């Protein structure tokens, strides 16, 4: 887990002096944090009313974009299933790992032209990320339905003999078919009761065909046996079998149905494989897009809050601090001491809402 503090401090005579002051206080003498300049271009300031309104709107947009970033990351982990160890290598921003992107942040002039107003830039981000969110919902719904249907079929083929599909176990030659009087039934017998079954199945009811039982399949606990009897004895045989801890499976041999089940399994499995690659590529691209948008919203927030607190002309230094985990409390105290001479409205921005945590990946 990597945590950053995105802070803004009022400029001295130059922003470089502000930077040097922070570096001396937090890094050069006491190793409280690793620091990077956070470069924000000369954005259009606009009116005070617009800035005040944007302050609230950007806080909400920040939370929304973060939620979309996390949803895309989490869904990537869900889709990769058994390859979750590869999640990290798929969650990049602009082709680099997240820590590198954040610590070397450069404003994307092509996506977010700085000649636009702050309001317009925030609307561009909101519209773009909302589209990613909607697309994710649609793609996830389609893929989850496909995956769920496939899992249901797989469960049918992998459960106990009492419940699982028998399509891949039984064959046509195991049954007496098209007889007006005789029927072949399937019985699940616990392994511990095999001897009892062999000794008693012919006498469980009248009209059981002698020596008609065969073991077709075994799992860890039970075996699947056939037995042939007269149709009129079905109910009596089922009752007596249950009393002896043998379970008659409700099953009718239907070649077309079993073939359809196998074809459905093949189709779903093929469809899942076809959709997997494009879905992972979409998630990679749109995680990057959403994450980049999120950091630009952070930059917008720092800019707006700094202008509101420090006034005009624009003169502040934005910095990204990676705290030494053991010294977080001390770091905050040092930063507060540096700027305690300022009134509360102009103190250095160290707002919890601007903490950047990329630890969810």
TrEMBL record:
Superkingdom, taxonomy of origin: Eukaryota
| UniProt KW keywords | Acetylation, Hydrogen ion transport, Ion transport, Transport
**Could you tell me which InterPro entries the record lists for this protein?**
ATPase_V1-cplx_csu (IPR004907), Vac_ATP_synth_c_sf (IPR036132)
User: Which Gene3D superfamilies does UniProt cross-reference here?
Assistant: 3.30.70.100, subunit c (vma5p) of the yeast v-atpase, domain 2, Vacuolar atp synthase subunit c, domain 1
SUPFAM superfamilies to which the protein is assigned, alphabetical: Vacuolar ATP synthase subunit C (SSF118203)
- State the Gene Ontology terms under molecular function: proton-transporting ATPase activity, rotational mechanism
Q: Which CDD domains match?
A: V-ATPase_C (cd14785)
Q: Name one GO cellular component term.
A: lysosomal membrane
Q: Which residues form a coiled coil?
A: none
Oligomer and partners: V-ATPase is a heteromultimeric enzyme made up of two complexes: the ATP-hydrolytic V1 complex and the proton translocation V0 complex. The V1 complex consists of three catalytic AB heterodimers that form a heterohexamer, three peripheral stalks each consisting of EG heterodimers, one central rotor including subunits D and F, and the regulatory subunits C and H. The proton translocation complex V0 consists of the proton transport subunit a, a ring of proteolipid subunits c9c'', rotary subunit d, subunits e and f, and two accessory subunits.
Q: Which family does it belong to?
A: Belongs to the V-ATPase C subunit family.
Q: Extract the PANTHER family matched here.
A: V-TYPE PROTON ATPASE SUBUNIT C (PTHR10137), V-TYPE PROTON ATPASE SUBUNIT C 1 (PTHR10137:SF5)
Q: What does this protein do?
A: Subunit of the V1 complex of vacuolar(H+)-ATPase (V-ATPase), a multisubunit enzyme composed of a peripheral complex (V1) that hydrolyzes ATP and a membrane integral complex (V0) that translocates protons. V-ATPase is responsible for acidifying and maintaining the pH of intracellular compartments and in some cell types, is targeted to the plasma membrane, where it is responsible for acidifying the extracellular environment. Subunit C is necessary for the assembly of the catalytic sector of the enzyme and is likely to have a specific function in its catalytic activity.
Q: What is this protein called?
A: V-type proton ATPase subunit C
User: Taxonomy-wise, where does this protein's organism fall, top ranks first?
Assistant: Eukaryota, Metazoa, Chordata, Craniata, Vertebrata
């Amino acid at each position: 887990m990597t945590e950053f503090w995105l802070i803004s401090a009022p400029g001295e005579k130059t922003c470089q002096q502000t930077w040097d002051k922070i570096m001396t206080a937090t890094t050069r003498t006491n190793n409280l944090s690793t620091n990077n300049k956070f470069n924000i271009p000369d954005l259009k300031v606009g009116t005070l009313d617009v800035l005040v309104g944007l302050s609230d709107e950007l806080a909400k947009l920040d939370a929304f974009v973060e939620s979309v970033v996390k949803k895309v990351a989490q869904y990537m982990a869900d889709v990769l299933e058994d390859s979750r160890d590869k999640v990290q290598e798929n969650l990049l921003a602009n082709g680099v790992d997240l820590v590198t992107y954040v610590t070397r942040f450069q404003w994307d002039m092509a996506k977010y032209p700085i000649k636009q107003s702050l309001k317009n830039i925030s609307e561009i981000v909101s519209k773009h990320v909302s589209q990613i969110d909607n697309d994710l919902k649609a793609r996830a719904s389609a893929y989850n339905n496909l995956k769920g249907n496939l899992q249901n079929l797989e469960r049918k083929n992998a459960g106990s003999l009492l419940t699982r599909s028998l399509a891949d176990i039984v064959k046509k030659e195991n049954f007496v078919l098209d007889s007006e009087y005789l029927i072949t039934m399937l019985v699940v017998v616990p392994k511990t009761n095999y001897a009892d079954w062999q000794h008693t199945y012919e006498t469980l009811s009248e009209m059981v065909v002698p020596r008609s039982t065969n073991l077709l399949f075994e799992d860890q606990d039970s075996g699947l046996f056939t037995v042939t009897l007269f149709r009129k004895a079905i109910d009596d045989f089922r009752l007596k079998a249950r009393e002896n801890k043998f379970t008659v499976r409700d099953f009718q041999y239907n070649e077309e149905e079993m073939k359809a089940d196998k074809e459905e399994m093949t189709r779903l499995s093929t469809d899942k494989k076809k959709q997997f690659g494009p879905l992972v590529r979409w998630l990679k691209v749109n995680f990057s897009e959403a994450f980049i948008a999120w950091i630009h919203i952070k930059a917008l927030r720092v800019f707006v809050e700094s202008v509101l607190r420090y006034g005009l002309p624009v003169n502040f230094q934005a910095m990204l601090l990676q705290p030494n985990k053991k010294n977080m409390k001390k770091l905050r105290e040092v930063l507060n001491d540096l700027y305690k001479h300022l009134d509360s409205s102009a103190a250095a921005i160290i707002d919890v809402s601007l903490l950047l945590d990329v630890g969810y990946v």
